[in-house]
Design brief:
This protein is α+β, with helices and mostly antiparallel strands. It has one domain: Tetrahydropterin Synthase, Chain A (2-Layer Sandwich). It contains two helices and five strands, in the order E-E-H-E-H-E-E. A five-stranded mixed beta sheet has the order 3-1-2-4-5. Strand 4 and strand 5 form a beta hairpin. Helix 1 crosses helix 2.
């Protein structure tokens, strides 16, 4: 198995209603999302020599995640939109469409700031 990873960016607002610090107030983030998938290197066809075309990964993540979350109030999707809750759900959302291309999610990493992230890893 070989893995590939692509990075995405989206912007959204949220607040953490049960938090005692500043994050209880509405604020925004420029999120960075990394999605790593694995699969066999294809031996024939248009993706010969690749796990998958990076464009396919881009299309799936944009369709199932970025278009849903970009420039949104995340509290309309999650009661408490922490990076941990978000990254776990993002992995669940991506699994079915990626399986159609014989791809397994290895890792999903969501940066809430440039130096803080939550990560979901496959438990295989």
């Amino acid at each position: 198995m070989v893995s590939i990873c692509r990075r995405f960016e989206f912007h959204a607002a949220h607040h953490l209603p049960f938090h005692q610090g500043k994050c209880k107030n509405i604020h925004g983030h420029s999120y960075f999302l990394e999605v790593e998938v694995s699969g066999d290197i294809q031996k024939k066809g248009p993706a010969s020599g690749m796990v998958t075309d990076f464009g396919i990964l881009k299309e799936i993540v944009n369709t199932y995640v970025v278009e849903l979350l970009d420039h949104q109030d995340l509290n309309k999707i999650w009661m408490t939109p922490t990076a941990e809750a978000m990254v776990q759900d993002i992995a669940v959302w991506l699994e079915p469409p990626l399986e159609k291309f014989n791809l397994s999610i290895e890792r999903v990493r969501l940066y809430e700031t440039s130096n803080s992230y939550a990560e979901w890893r496959n438990k295989k």
